[in-house]
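Re: that chain you flagged

S.,

Sorry for the slow reply, it's been a week of failed gels. I finally had a moment to sit down with the sequence you sent. For the record, here it is as I used it:
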Amino acid sequence: MRFRIIVAVVLLSSTTGFAGELSSFNGVAKGKSTRQAEPVAEGHVLLNLSTVYSSFETSDPKSPFKDQTGKCWGAIEVNPPNANGGGNCVFTTASGDKHFNKWTVTGLSKDGASVGNWVVIGGTGKYEGASGGGTFQALTDQKTGETSNTVEGAVILK
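Prediction finished late last night. Pasting the structure tokens below so you have them in one place:
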């Protein structure tokens, strides 16, 4: 899956005549989620979600996404084994640069994590004109709200 995402980003950049820096966006965002649930039926629920991410951990010390913070919000319909919905995120670096993302839930993993896709929709500073996207798998502890979001993909910085 990671290879297909990077190939798609590279093809996108080559068709627009862009020559930018391709950066891997692989790591784990850690944060705390709050939710409001509206039961539809037994096991079927609508969720209004908000997550504040306090860190983005990556093994690449040169990653432009290392140590970002951010927030995401949106709504998901969960009716196991299915889930769908979406929302937006804004992530900020220590220098104040921001990138804005759109996310879409496409299902649930076996352990109950939301899985889906994300895409860059804008940015400021070094993220101005950025493009790219990838996949995510977000698992939230229902008792504590602690969230671990494993993110993979790539971003092209102009």
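What I noticed first: Helices lie at 2-15.

Talk soon,
D.
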